[in-house]
Specification:
Layout (H helix, E strand, L loop, with lengths): L1 H24 L3 H13 L4 H25 L5 H23 L3 H22 L15 H18 L4 H12 L3 H25 L5 H28 L3 H23 L1
Helix pairs in contact: 1-2, 1-3, 1-8, 1-9, 2-3, 3-8, 3-9, 4-6, 4-8, 5-10, 6-7, 6-8, 7-8
Length: about 260
Amino acid sequence: MQTNMSHVALEILSGVPVGFTLGLIGGGGSILAVPLMVYLVGVKDPHVAIGTSALAVAVNALAGLVQHARSGTVQWRCAAVFAPCGMIGAIGGAWLGKAMDGQRLLLLFAFLMIGVGVTMLRGRRETDCEKTSYAPKNIVKIASFGAGTGLLSGFFGIGGGFLIVPGLMASTHMPIINAVSTSLVAVAAFGLSAALSYLLSGYIDWGLATFFILGGIIGTYSGSYCARVLCKKGCHLTTIFSSIIFTVAVYMIWRGFQTL
């Protein structure tokens, strides 16, 4: 009984940093969720870890979205274009991902993380909290980014926020706080699309998802608050988060090559 309670506590605590990163930077939840489920919680089947993390990240993204929406930073028109296109891509990506060996999928995921980390470091810059320059002429560009990001999201079982945020900024020139807030709409949509596909194949652990989500909700509240505060002051979150990405990716690559 004590062992079960300890494991439940571990599952809840593992969800906290996932929710915190979602609330803070609008993405990165699955970058932490998948390896936490596999290497810390001890989920044996990588496909179960990917499917369950997709569901947990989607629900946690909705919790973070509520906090950002209250502060008025969500750009709903951009989200209305980005999210539906991404959902279509996510369904196709999830179908492709399930056809691959689970361990190889995690290894590819790790290399993707390194690429994202490098991109984040090269493109980091300080932005203020002014309003976005959304315009109807950007619809095609926004839709293209949505479809491409959704495909990768479904394939690797990730919320995709770490790709959505720079995509929204590049296509609309919106400040980071608006991109973070708006990305949560797409993260939730992508995650639910991927989770539905994995659910139909029996790859969702509902008990783990419940406790992981509980911890994630705690994290999203604090992460959303920090994002609003840091937006006004400027920070080095991109550098810090990229360092976390590199650390986790190297560990996943090391473990992945051991199992091949």
